[in-house]
């Protein structure tokens, strides 16, 4: 026998940020990133990511924007 439990939507905590793979999120992340100084490699990835999101390739665009973010943070050598 399997018991099913209904769980309602939970409310995010104040310190949590909800993200989704949407064009709006992509644009918001790119906008925050574009205000930072960054190496050329990161700037190229950011520009490519923004263009991909605008063409509807949100997953690939976010992947590039997040990679640019890791480069800026120094978590990936460039």
Describe this structure in words.
The mean pLDDT is 84. The protein is built from three helices and no strands. The protein is 54% helix and 0% strand. The chain has a domain at 23-72. It is mainly α.
Individual helix count: 3
Structural class determined from secondary elements: mainly alpha
Distance between the termini: 55 Å
Question: Which series of helices and strands comes N to C?
Answer: HHH
Which whole number gives the mean pLDDT? 84
Q: How many beta-strand segments?
A: 0
- Cα-based radius of gyration, to the nearest Å: 17 Å
Anisotropy-based shape: globular
Biggest sheet: strands, sense, closure? none
Q: Determine the fraction of residues in helical runs and give it as a percent range.
A: 40-55%
* Approximate strand percentage: under 5%
In the predicted model, the low-confidence regions spanning at least 5 consecutive residues are none
Oligomer: single chain
